[in-house]
C-alpha cells in the first residue's frame, strides 16, 4: 500500500503541476474562499429541506467536489426518506415514476414477448431515449450488464443500503463515459453503515392477485478501534404477478376494462372515397381462426368446430358473411367487430410477471488512517421471472387440412365430396393445448470490487482520490416451456387412416421418427403422447454469459485559490473490458460442426438442423464477442466572479478521451457555467456537451441467423439468402446536449421554497438501427455504398442480403423540466406538524425520429401515447408529518395525446391516405391521473409501521390498439395492475 500511495502522490503532483501551468494567469489574482456551507452541485432534495451540514458532497453530474462548487448539469436527488415514502417493493418502480424517466422497462412490459431477451429486466430510461442511452451506476461505478445490450438490472442492486439516488438529467459522458446520452442514474450506498435495520412489506391488488412480499435486513459494525468496518445486507422479494385468464375478451380476476382493441385498416388503394383508412375498433374479432378451429376459405368457409369436433356456423362480428375467398363481407381484413370472441388471445398475456429477487451484499473496509481506507465489496443477486406471452399458438388461416383426415366429422367429409374439394384452409387458436407457453428468465450476478479511497495533503492542499478494480459476471438463462415445434406440429395434424383402422401421421418420414397424430378439429382432449411429440419437455433455451472488468483511478481537489475562489481539478483514467457469449438450443440455433451434441435435443429428420428456427417462437442463436476501452478525463471548475454587486459565477469544463478496440478513438466534452445572481436565491445555469454511446455487444456481434427471403430489385422479384449478423464496423452514436436553467433556492422572501426550470435539447446522430432486407436494397439503389457492400443482387443462385445494424438514424428531443418544493412548520399558522410540497414535471416539445430509410419521413413521438413520451408527465407529492406520524398524498399524471402524430384525423372528405400520412377517424388517446396515499407511524424510536395505497381510484388503462390481435394496452405509460395495497414495518437501531 505504501507503493500505491506513493504512486498516487506522484500522479496528483503531475496533474496539479499541469493544471497550475494551464491556469497560471489566475494565480496572481485576489484569492477568496468559497462558501464553506455550500453543498457541491446539490439540487433541491426531494424533501425540500435545506442542507443540514456544511459539508462538501459530490453530486453525480460532475466529478468535482469542492467548496462553493455548484454544478451546471441539472440533477434531482432522492434521499432514503423519499424512497421510504414511496414504499415500493423495488426502487425501480419509484424511480420510473419521475417525469424525466420515460420508456423504462419493468415486469409489466415485454410480457407479450418470447424472444426479446429483455423480459423481467428493471432498466431505466431517461428522456425516452431508451435504456441503452441511460447510464446506471452503483456508487459511481459501472455494473455488469444483465443483457447483451449492456443495460443493468436495478433489481440486482443492494437496495436497503441506498441512501441517495442522483438522477442526472443531462449528458454525462464527459464525467462517466459511454451510454450517458440521456443522462445517468447513480445509486449511492451507505458505506459506513452502523447498526441494524430491517424492513418487511407485503400486499396485493384489489383483485386479490399480484400478492407480494419483501424482507430486507442490513447490519454494520466497526471493529479494531473503529478501523475495521463490516456491512452485510440481504433481501428477498417475491411478486406473484397477474396470470392470464386464457382465451376470450375477459380481463384477469375481474378486471373489466379489456376491450380487445385494434386498428381496422382499409387497403391504401381504397382511400380515394373520402373516408379514413384507419379506425380504432373495440371487441375486435380475428376472423382467420376460432377457438377450436375454423375453415377459412372455399365453399365451407365459416364452418367452426366445437366440443367433440361437432361443426357449427361461426358467428362473425359486423354481421359478416363469408365469401368463400377468405374474405368476410362487412369486415376489414383481418378483423370483424363483435361476434364470437371466445378465441381471442389478446387478454391471454400476463399483465405482470412473477418476479423473485434475491440479493446478498457485503462491504469490508480497513482505515489505514483517519483519511484513507481500503475496501472490498461483493454482491450476489439472482432475479427470476416467469410469465405467459400468449395462450395456445394461434394459426391464422395458414393450415391445410385434407378432406381424408380421419378426425373430420362425416358431414364435413361429405361436404368436401359434394363441393369437389380435397382440402381446405384452416385456422385455430389451439385452445386445446394443455398449457400456455411460459417463459422463465433467470439472471444471476456476481460482482466484486477492491478499492481504496481517501484524502492526501499535497502542496498545502487536500486531494481526494478513489481507485478500484471490479470483476462482474452475469449469467442469463431463458427457458421456454410448453411450446411447439412447427414441423412436428404440421406433421402431427396431417393424419391419415391406416390399413388396420388406426390413425397415423401421413408423412412416412415423420411417422418413422416418432410422430404421433394430433386432433385439432374441435375441442378434444390432447393425447399426452402427441403433446410430448410436438412440445417436447426440453423447449427453447438460451444461455448467456457476460463479464465486465474495470480498473479506474480518480482524483479531485482544489489546485489553488483563484481571484474568485478555489480552482478545482478532477482527473482520472479507466480501463474496461466487456465480453459475452450466447448459446441457443440445437432446435433453435441449428447445429454445425462446432456444435456439441446435446442429448436433450436429438436429431430429427423433420427439423432444419443447420439453420434452426424450428420453434413456434423463441429461436435463440449462438454468438460471442468482446471489446475493450481505455479512457482518460479531466474536469476543471474555474470561479470567474465573486462580487457583492454582481454575484458569483463559475465555469465548468471537462474532456474525456476514449479508445475502443472496435470503434477507435472517441472524445466527449462538456462546457457549463452557473451564475449566482445578486437577486436573493436566484441562480442561472447552462451546459453544452458532446456525448456518445458506443455500439454494444449485441450490435457488434449479433448471433447470426440465415433465412431465405425475396426482395424487389430493378422491377424484378428475386430470391436472396438473408443473413443477419453483427456489424463490427459500427461507429459510436454522437449526441449534442444543450440545457439552460433558472433556479430559485429558498430566498429570504420565501423561506422553505425552491423551484427550477430547465430547457433541454438533445440531438443524436449516427443512431444505430436495423433495417429490413428490402429497405437495405432500396438504400443501396439510392446510392449508399456502405449498405451496397452488404449484399450481392446480380448473381442468381448466390444472391444475398446481409442484415446488420447501421449508423443511419437520428433522434432529436427537446423540452423542459420543472421542479418545485416547499417546506414549512405549521406552528406559524397555529397548526401542528410540518408540511412539505414537492412537484416535478417534464414537458416534451418534440421527440423526432428519423430512420434514414428511403421513402420515410421523420416521426414525432411527443404526445403519442402509444409510446413512452407524453407531452406532459407530472409527479406531485404533499406530506404532513410530526415526530410520530406522517401522511403523504401523491399525484401521477400524464397528458392526453394521440395514437400517432403522423395520422391525419378526419371523418369525411379525407385526403387519400399515404404510407407516411395515413388518415384515421379518431386520433385521440386519453392520458391518466393516478392518486397514491400512504402513511408512516413511529411506534418507538426504532420501530415504525407504514402503509401505501397506489392508484387509489383504480384508474383503468386506456386501450392501445395494434394492427394485430396482440396485447392491446401500453404498460410503459399506464398502470395496468390497478389499485394496490401494501403495509409493512421498519426497524432500525
Structure, explained:
- The protein is mainly beta.
- The chain has a domain at 252-351 and 392-434 and 498-537.
- Helix content is 9%, strand content 44%.
- It is built from 13 helices and 49 strands.
- The strands form 11 sheets. It has a 22-stranded antiparallel beta barrel. The protein has a 5-stranded mixed beta sheet with strand order 1-4-5-2-3. The protein has a 4-stranded mixed beta sheet with strand order 32-33-37-36, covered by helices on one side.
- The relative contact order is 0.13.
What percentage of amino acids are in beta strands?
A: 35-45%
Instruction: Return residue spans where pLDDT drops below 50 for at least 5 consecutive residues.
Output: 1-55
Radius of gyration: 31 Å
Mean residue pLDDT: 91
Note the total helix count: 13
> Quick one: overall form?
globular
Cα separation of the termini:
35 Å
Q: Bin the helical content.
A: under 10%
**Quaternary state, please?**
single chain
* Category from helices, strands and their pairing: mainly beta
Query: How many E strands?
Result: 49
- Main β-sheet description: 22 strands, antiparallel, barrel
Amino acid at each position: 500500500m505504501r507503493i500505491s500511495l506513493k504512486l498516487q502522490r506522484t500522479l496528483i503532483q503531475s496533474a496539479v503541476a499541469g493544471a497550475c501551468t494551464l491556469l497560471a494567469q489566475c494565480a496572481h489574482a485576489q484569492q477568496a474562499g468559497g462558501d464553506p456551507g455550500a453543498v457541491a452541485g446539490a439540487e433541491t432534495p426531494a424533501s425540500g429541506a435545506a442542507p443540514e451540514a456544511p459539508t462538501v458532497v459530490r453530486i453525480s453530474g460532475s466529478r468535482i467536489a469542492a467548496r462553493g462548487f455548484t454544478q451546471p448539469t441539472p440533477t434531482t436527488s432522492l434521499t432514503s426518506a423519499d424512497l421510504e415514502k414511496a414504499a415500493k417493493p423495488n426502487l425501480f418502480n419509484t424511480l420510473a415514476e419521475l417525469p424525466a424517466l420515460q420508456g423504462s422497462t419493468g415486469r409489466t412490459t415485454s410480457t407479450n414477448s418470447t424472444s426479446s431477451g429483455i423480459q423481467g429486466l428493471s432498466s431505466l430510461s431517461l428522456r425516452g431515449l431508451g435504456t441503452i442511452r441511460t447510464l446506471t451506476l452503483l456508487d459511481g461505478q459501472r455494473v455488469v450488464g444483465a443483457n447483451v445490450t449492456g443495460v443493468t438490472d436495478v433489481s440486482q442492486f443492494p437496495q436497503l443500503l441506498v441512501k441517495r439516488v442522483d438522477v442526472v438529467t443531462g449528458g454525462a459522458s464527459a464525467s462517466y463515459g459511454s451510454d450517458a446520452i440521456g443522462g445517468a442514474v447513480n445509486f449511492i450506498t451507505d458505506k459506513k453503515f452502523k447498526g441494524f435495520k430491517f424492513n418487511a412489506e407485503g400486499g396485493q391488488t384489489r383483485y386479490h392477485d399480484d400478492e407480494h412480499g419483501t424482507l430486507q435486513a442490513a447490519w454494520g459494525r466497526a471493529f479494531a478501534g473503529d478501523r475495521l468496518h463490516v456491512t452485510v445486507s440481504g433481501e428477498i422479494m417475491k411478486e406473484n404477478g397477474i396470470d392470464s385468464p386464457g382465451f376470450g375478451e375477459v380481463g384477469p380476476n375481474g378486471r373489466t376494462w379489456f376491450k380487445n382493441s385494434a386498428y381496422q385498416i382499409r387497403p391504401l388503394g381504397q382511400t380515394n372515397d373520402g373516408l379514413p383508412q384507419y379506425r380504432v375498433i373495440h371487441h375486435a374479432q380475428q376472423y382467420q381462426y376460432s377457438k377450436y378451429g375454423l375453415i377459412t376459405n372455399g365453399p365451407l368457409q365459416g364452418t367452426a368446430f366445437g366440443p367433440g369436433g361437432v361443426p357449427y356456423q361461426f358467428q362473425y362480428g359486423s354481421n359478416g358473411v363469408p365469401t368463400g375467398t377468405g374474405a368476410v363481407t362487412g369486415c376489414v381484413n383481418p378483423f370483424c367487430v363483435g361476434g364470437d370472441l371466445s378465441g381471442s388471445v389478446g387478454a391471454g398475456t400476463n399483465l405482470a410477471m412473477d418476479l423473485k429477487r434475491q440479493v446478498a451484499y457485503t462491504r469490508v473496509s480497513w482505515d489505514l488512517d483517519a483519511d484513507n481506507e481500503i475496501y472490498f465489496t461483493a454482491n450476489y443477486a439472482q432475479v427470476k421471472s416467469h410469465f405467459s406471452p400468449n395462450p395456445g399458438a394461434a394459426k391464422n388461416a395458414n393450415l391445410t387440412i385434407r378432406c381424408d383426415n380421419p378426425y373430420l366429422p362425416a358431414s364435413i367429409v361429405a361436404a368436401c365430396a359434394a363441393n369437389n374439394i380435397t382440402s381446405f384452409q384452416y385456422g385455430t387458436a389451439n385452445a386445446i393445448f394443455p398449457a400456455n407457453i411460459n417463459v422463465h428468465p433467470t439472471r444471476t450476478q456476481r460482482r466484486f470490487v477492491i478499492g481504496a479511497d481517501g484524502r492526501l495533503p499535497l502542496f498545502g492542499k487536500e486531494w481526494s482520490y478513489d481507485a478500484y478494480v471490479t470483476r462482474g459476471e452475469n449469467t442469463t438463462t431463458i427457458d421456454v416451456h410448453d411450446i411447439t415445434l412447427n414441423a412436428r406440429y404440421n406433421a402431427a395434424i396431417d393424419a391419415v387412416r391406416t390399413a388396420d383402422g388406426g390413425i397415423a401421421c401421413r408423412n412416412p418420414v415423420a411417422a418413422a421418427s416418432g410422430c404421433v397424430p394430433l386432433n385439432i378439429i374441435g375441442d378434444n382432449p390432447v393425447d399426452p403422447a402427441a403433446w410430448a411429440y410436438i412440445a417436447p419437455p426440453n423447449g427453447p433455451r438460451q444461455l448467456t454469459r457476460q463479464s465486465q472488468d474495470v480498473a479506474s483511478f480518480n482524483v479531485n481537489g482544489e489546485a489553488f485559490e483563484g481571484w474568485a475562489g478555489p480552482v478545482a481539478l478532477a482527473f482520472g483514467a479507466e480501463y474496461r473490458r466487456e465480453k459475452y457469449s450466447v448459446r441457443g438450443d440445437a432446435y433453435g440455433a441449428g447445429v454445425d460442426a462446432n456444435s456439441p451434441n446435446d442429448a436433450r435435443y436429438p436429431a430429427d429428420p423433420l427439423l432444419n438442423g443447420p439453420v434452426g428456427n424450428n420453434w413456434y417462437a423463441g429461436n435463440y442463436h449462438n454468438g460471442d464477442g468482446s471489446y475493450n476501452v481505455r479512457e482518460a478525463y479531466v474536469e476543471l471548475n474555474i470561479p470567474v466572479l465573486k462580487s457583492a454587486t454582481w454575484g458569483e459565477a463559475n465555469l465548468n469544463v471537462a474532456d474525456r478521451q476514449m479508445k475502443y478496440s472496435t470503434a477507435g478513438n472517441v472524445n466527449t466534452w462538456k462546457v457549463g457555467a452557473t451564475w449566482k445572481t445578486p437577486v436573493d436565491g436566484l441562480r442561472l445555469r447552462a451546459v453544452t456537451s458532446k456525448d456518445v454511446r458506443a455500439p454494444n455487444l449485441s450490435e457488434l456481434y449479433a448471433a447470426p441467423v440465415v433465412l431465405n427471403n425475396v426482395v424487389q430489385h430493378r422491377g424484378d422479384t428475386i430470391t436472396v439468402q438473408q443473413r443477419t449478423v453483427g456489424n463490427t464496423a459500427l461507429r459510436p452514436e454522437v449526441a449534442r446536449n444543450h440545457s439552460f436553467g433558472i433556479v430559485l433556492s429558498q430566498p429570504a422572501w420565501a423561506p422553505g421554497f425552491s423551484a427550477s426550470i430547465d430547457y433541454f435539447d438533445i440531438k443524436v446522430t449516427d443512431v444505430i438501427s436495423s433495417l429490413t432486407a428490402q429497405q437495405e436494397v432500396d438504400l443501396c439503389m439510392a446510392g449508399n455504398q456502405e449498405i451496397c457492400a452488404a449484399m450481392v443482387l446480380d448473381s442468381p443462385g448466390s444472391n444475398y442480403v446481409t442484415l446488420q445494424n447501421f449508423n443511419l438514424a437520428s433522434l432529436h428531443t427537446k423540452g423542459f423540466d420543472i421542479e418545485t418544493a416547499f417546506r414549512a412548520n405549521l406552528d406559524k399558522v397555529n397548526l401542528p406538524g410540518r408540511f412539505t410540497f414537492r412537484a416535478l414535471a417534464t414537458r416534451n416539445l418534440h421527440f423526432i425520429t428519423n430512420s434514414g430509410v428511403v421513402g420515410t419521413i421523420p416521426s414525432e413521438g411527443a404526445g403519442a401515447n402509444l409510446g413512452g413520451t407524453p407531452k406532459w408527465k407530472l409527479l406531485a407529492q404533499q406530506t404532513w408529518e410530526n415526530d410520530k406520524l406522517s401522511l403523504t398524498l401523491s399525484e401521477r399524471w400524464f397528458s392526453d395525446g394521440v395514437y400517432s402524430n403522423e395520422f391525419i384525423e378526419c371523418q369525411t372528405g379525407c385526403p387519400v391516405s399515404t404510407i407516411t400520412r395515413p388518415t384515421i377517424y379518431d386520433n385521440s388517446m386519453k392520458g391518466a391521473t393516478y392518486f397514491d396515499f400512504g402513511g408512516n407511524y413511529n411506534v418507538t424510536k426504532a420501530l415504525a409501521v407504514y402503509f401505501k395505497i397506489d392508484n387509489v381510484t383504480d384508474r383503468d388503462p386506456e386501450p392501445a390498439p395494434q394492427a394485430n390481435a396482440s396485447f392491446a394496452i401500453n404498460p410503459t405509460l399506464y398502470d395496468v395492475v390497478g389499485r394496490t395495497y401494501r403495509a409493512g414495518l421498519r426497524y432500525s437501531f
